[in-house]
Each structure stands twice: as structure tokens, then as C-alpha cells.
Amino acid sequence: MKEYKISEFAKKIGVSRQTLLNWDKSGKLKPSHFSKKGYRLYSQKQLDEFLKNENKSEPKETKNEKDDFQNNSINQSSENSEVVEILREQIEFLKEQIKIKDELFEEQLKAKDEIIKREQELRLFADRKILLLEENSKAENLESEQEEKVKKTWWKFW
Fold it and tell me: How many domains does one find in the chain?
């Protein structure tokens, strides 16, 4: 036999879920049983009997039930507004955190670029130093060779 959850049953008979909850409390219409998870379940037989007893017309909610529904809606709307405000605050906080992290990241990139630039300057300096040392070494070798030639020439004349 077909079973309906509370929202489905409410829709079938033309009332709100809250009305069925109220009827359950007052004893006007109780669920046929509860699921293992605790959901209220209504049977096809209950649907047929209800529609038959109500002459197949949809039951009207009482003024109090409508007021309850409206008040619940207003309360939910107020709660939703509070939730939305909290979410907006959290979003703003996260945006600030992202901004701070972006700034830190930019600083780290600049520092990295500076380190790379200095490393390149040090390599150039080292390369120049090596070239100078090589040139000095060649110059010293050339000077030594010239001194040797002078000495040889000098000894020839003596």
C-alpha cells in the first residue's frame, strides 16, 4: 500500500505541513506509523478516508493555523536574515584574509626577485673577478717572460 511522508500527504489534501503537525498534536489526524528514521508516514487508506469524509474538498486552515504559518514564516525570515548577515560578515572576513595573503605573497615575490637579482650580480662580479685574476696571471707570466728575456739579453752583453 502506498505511503506518504508528511509533506506529500499535506500537498495531497491541500494543507500545510504545519497543519498536519498541529492535527497530529491535537489528535485530529495522526500518522498511520513512523519510519525507522522517525518520519511520520500516512497511508493511502488515510488519504482516501480523509477525502471521503471531507467530501473531496480540501480542508481549510483555520485563522490560527494561518497566523501560526505566517509567524513561522516571519521568524524563519528573520532567522534567515541573521544567517545571511553572518554569512556576509564571514565573506568579508575571508576577503580580508585573502587580501592579506595576497599582499604577503606579493612581498615574497618581490623578495625572491631581489634575491635572484643579487645572485646574478654576484655571479657577474665573480666572473669579472675570475677574468681579472686570469688577466693578472697572464700579465705576471708575460712580465716573467720579459724579465727572463731581459736577463738573457743582459747576460749576452756582459
Answer: 1
Question: Residues of 80-115 as b/e, b for ≥16 C-beta within 10 angstroms?
Answer: eeeeeeeeeeeeeeeeeeeeeeeeeeeeeeeeeeee
pLDDT tens-digit series, residues 38-67? 999 999 999 999 988 876 544 444 445 555
Domain housing 35: 3-61
Does residue 141 fall inside a structural domain?
Answer: no
Asked if residues 62 and 22 have their Cβ atoms less than 8 Å apart, the reply is no
- The cell numbers describing 113, all together, are 626577485
Cell numbers at 117, concatenated:
637579482
Find the CATH number of the domain harbouring 11: 1.10.1660.10
